[in-house]
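Feature request, filed as a ticket because there's no other form

It would be nice if the structure record came with a short human-readable summary line next to the tokens. Right now we just get the raw output. Example of a typical job, pasted below so the devs can see what we mean:
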Amino acid sequence: MPCLSLRSSATFAAPALVTLALLGGCAGQPSTPSHDGSFYRSERPAITLDYASELVRVGHTGGHFGPHGWHSFAAPDSPGQRLITLQLPDSSDVSRAQWRLGISRDSMAVYQCLAPPESASSEGTGIARLAGHRFVTFETSEADMNHYRHVHGYRSVIDGTCYAIDLVVEGVNGTVYDPPRQPPFSRDRAFERLQQINGDLQLDER
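Raw output as currently delivered:
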């Protein structure tokens, strides 16, 4: 099972330069992925994910912070494809935790792929090795009207495709309920569980 390692870095090279460093050749058109229980596979690009059966595959990722495109910071009409979203089974309307994978071959998306969003904190940026490939990493935290969203993002350009993996913990302050409600998990524990999914991901250039 692949392991994930992190090397912190507070600064990044220009997106175009970093993209060129990771950019491979041109890939074919995406194939129709297959789903079988707790197994996900796509032939083009070559992606395999054998995930824990307790995880729930969901299609909805929108929330208080708006609808999402192929990654958590992309507009709904942004060119790209959300491949799979997995949710922790004990998620609730107070707090939910999701693992999201999306790709895009759009030239502008590939060019901007490795640039963290403006809301990313400098302390949370770095480089990780995931499924045998180098990924730029970042962390964001947002709050608005008793709602919150925390994202640990991973970005890489592989064989001409931008890969976006987002680990998302979001919800609402439980004290707004009467009586107050507790979240089903702590933020740290939710991210620990979501990061375990990273170790089950396989990406192979073809």
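Something like this underneath would help us a lot:
Residues 5-27+57-199 form a domain with the Protein Transport Mog1p; Chain A fold (CATH 3.40.1000).
The CA atoms of residues 151 and 198 lie 14 Å apart.
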